């Protein structure tokens, strides 16, 4: 379990229960399948999304069994999208470990992702309401559409901040929003409170993804545990690049006309993005989302979990960068 | 619409409504996505599974809106599995048309399949009961596990009829059973009747897949609209092969030790399978399932749709082979 939860014993013990529940639900005769999913479960992610479900559920009438089920579903939906993303990206490692597709083959990874989707809806049908299933499946459609949009816009020279924000809204913020919303709505919180938590998730998610995208331009393989500049090499232009390209259209034109980048190109682009303050501008926008998130958190009703949410958001969004 | 429905105007008009419903549900801003799914919808399949939902729903209190939604879901789940299967099989064509993965790329096909899954659960949450969603997601898990089992057993020399039957039970029969069961259960048929329809679907599905698998050994690309012997080339050993290999272990040993087959190998194997009456034996087992299906259909309560189901099963299973 990630050390981010060390100070929150109640959240941590619930997350342990969520892990047990996931283990129970992916048990199957085929041990290869079971083991490959178990590896995903133990792969050391932060478990932010299930934690958000637990936290939001505590704003209503906390029903442990229900909250844990919903949390397990959200984490497994997240796992399913990661497995399929790795197929698309041809990724060799994730979180420092070999990916399902690299270890067992792409074919296998496609079906493992599908199997995880099915398990999620099976759990939902046993523990959630029809309304929640509707919200979940709509969210998942938006996530898929976001991923497809990202595919379609690879090496697309028509850059726009708006398109980028739309893309990360689907790709990342959606599942953060869903986590906080579902926890609230299914524990009987009012519509207004559930929607407020949805918005908090959205703003945390947007800030989180923008910050993550700046790491491609400043980080190295050690500190972010993924190959630096991986998005760039795939022709995915993120916010620091977009801001920099706006400031120096002529120089970036050369790169925007290319259909693949050499290591030398990547190095030059990183220098250019820094020179034109692409990272600084991106951080400024991340800050706006962060502030919005904190303002919305401050307006939540008094509850011990309000402080937890605030502290976790601080750890995620105000980390050293 | 396939001519199999020409004599059944009521079923045909409901299937037209199912197509409209699918069109409505896959509408989205991204026209590329919408068009690629529309192509799947119009690609000229028999629409057996949605027709089974419609037929079974008529054994209860027929609610057109509900029956059409469930039928659309089953057809789209089927489409999602086909899209992902084509990714795995690297298939260039299906039903005589270029596959999504061949036309738009594998990456795109993975997400299109995922998007279809999400749309299915969104429709289910609006039109079905939690119980149905549970049954559907369990069925879909079994289908995924069946596909993974098929992947795992490629070029596996430990052949067994039992494993083969398990595999096609998950791969094909499950969705046939689910179609008839869901239609019945959601239109208020008794548990016993719903289960009887499940069994009918199972037996039709088993016979259907066995017959389809014999076509790899007798058919040609024209008559079955898929490259002959495609399964064999991928190391998927179906019933005619398994029966023949049991009769002449020594000769087949040579082929079972290989990890790929040349065109010459495939030609020789087809000759051997015919020589050892693999097709005849497979047809005999298909006949058993067919007879079981007809017996179960005969025991259905009197209803105009009983005769339709029987005639359709005859067309599918007693076709010239």
UniProtKB/TrEMBL annotation, chains A, B:
CDD domains, sorted: Trans_IPPS_HT
Protein name: Polyprenyl synthetase family protein
Keyword tags: Magnesium, Metal-binding, Transferase
Pfam families: polyprenyl_synt
Any one Gene Ontology BP term: isoprenoid biosynthetic process
Family recorded in the similarity comment: Belongs to the FPP/GGPP synthase family.
Cofactor(s) listed in the protein's UniProt record: Mg(2+)
Gene Ontology molecular functions: metal ion binding; prenyltransferase activity
Cited InterPro entries: Isoprenoid_synthase_dom_sf (IPR008949), Polyprenyl_synt (IPR000092), Polyprenyl_synt_CS (IPR033749)
Species of the source: Clostridium bovifaecis
Keyword Methyltransferase: no
Keyword Transmembrane helix attributed: no
């Amino acid at each position: 379990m990630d050390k981010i939860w060390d100070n929150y014993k109640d959240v941590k013990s619930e997350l342990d229960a969520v892990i047990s529940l996931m283990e129970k639900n992916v048990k199957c005769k085929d041990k290869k399948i079971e083991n490959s999913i178990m590896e995903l479960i133990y792969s050391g992610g932060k478990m932010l999304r299930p934690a958000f479900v637990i936290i939001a559920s505590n704003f209503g009438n906390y029903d442990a069994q229900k909250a844990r089920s919903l949390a397990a579903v959200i984490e497994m939906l997240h796992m399913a999208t990661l497995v399929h993303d790795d197929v698309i990206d041809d990724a060799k490692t994730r979180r420092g470990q070999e990916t399902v597709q690299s270890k067992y083959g792409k074919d296998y990874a496609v079906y493992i992702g599908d199997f995880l989707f099915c398990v999620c809806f099976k759990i939902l049908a046993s523990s959630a309401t029809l309304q929640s299933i509707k919200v979940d499946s709509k969210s998942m459609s938006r996530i898929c559409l976001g991923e497809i949009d990202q595919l379609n816009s690879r090496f697309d020279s028509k850059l726009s901040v708006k398109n980028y924000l739309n893309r990360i809204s689907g790709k990342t913020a959606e599942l953060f929003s869903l986590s906080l919303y579902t926890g609230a709505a299914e524990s009987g919180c009012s519509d207004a409170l559930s929607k407020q938590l949805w918005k908090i998730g959205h703003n945390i998610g947007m800030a989180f993804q923008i910050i993550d995208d700046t790491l491609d331009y400043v980080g190295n393989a050690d500190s972010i545990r993924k190959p630096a500049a991986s998005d760039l090499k795939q022709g995915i232009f993120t916010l620091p690049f977009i801001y920099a390209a706006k400031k120096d259209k002529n120089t970036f034109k050369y790169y925007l006309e290319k259909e693949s980048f050499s290591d030398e190109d990547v190095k030059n682009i990183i220098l250019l993005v820094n020179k034109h303050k692409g990272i600084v501008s991106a951080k400024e926008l991340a800050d706006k989302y962060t502030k919005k998130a904190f303002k919305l958190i401050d307006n939540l009703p008094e509850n011990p979990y309000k402080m937890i949410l605030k502290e976790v958001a601080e750890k995620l969004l105000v980390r050293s960068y």
